[in-house]
Specification:
By secondary structure, this protein is an alpha/beta fold. The protein has helices at about 1-25, 55-60, 100-110, 125-130, 160-175, and strands spanning about 40-45, 70-75, 85-90, 110-120, 135-140, 150-155. The longest helix is centred in the N-terminal third of the chain and has 23 residues, at about 1-25.
Length: about 180
């Protein structure tokens, strides 16, 4: 038990070191044409448990039915319990910032036009997922480190309709939506 705790502590420090190194170098955005055709969402399910609300982006932005990919973070989850949203947690942290979770690997293997970081607390796992995701435009909530997002919307986490409306407004200003 003592050795497992020590190992987890070293993995956490290794993840923090990886995160700091990644933040020093500018992220390389995928070379995709303007316009939103795919959206990735990283959501803190401990703070916002209605991840199905992100499917509203399909109708609001005029996207294909499978254009929105959502992955959620839980501080603790039971691997035997079914979840509607793919989930990762602290126990999926590996050495050097690697996230050892099949759902996370699938999410990270894709490129997105828009990445929505829907969390408002500093969390290593959420930040690692955000920094490793390849996206052309990143949007998040206020109160976080500004280096993770290109656009920060100061909206309460529980007020999803306002977030969706503001995101739509700014995507039109950036000429990402027609």
């Amino acid at each position: 038990m003592f050795l497992r705790g020590l190992k987890d502590k070293f993995k956490y420090k290794s993840g923090l070191k990886f995160l700091r190194e990644e933040l020093k170098s500018p992220p390389s955005a995928p070379q995709r044409p303007k316009g939103i055709s795919s959206i990735g969402v990283i959501v803190d399910l401990d703070a916002f448990d209605r991840a199905e609300r992100f499917q509203e982006f399909i109708e609001a932005f005029g996207l294909r039915p499978n254009a929105v990919k959502v992955i959620g973070y839980r501080g603790f989850y039971d691997t035997n319990s079914p979840y509607a949203t793919p989930v990762f947690s602290e126990k999926d942290l590996g050495w050097h910032g690697v996230i050892e979770n099949s759902y996370a690997s699938e999410f990270l293997s894709r490129e997105y036009d828009l990445l929505v970081n829907y969390y408002d607390s500093t969390n290593l796992m959420l930040q690692l997922m955000s920094i490793k995701t390849r996206a052309r435009l990143r949007v998040g909530l206020g109160g976080l480190d500004k280096s993770f997002n290109d656009l920060i919307l100061h909206v309460p986490m529980g007020d999803f309709p306002t977030f969706k409306k503001e995101l739509h407004k700014y995507l039109k200003v950036f000429k990402e939506l027609v």
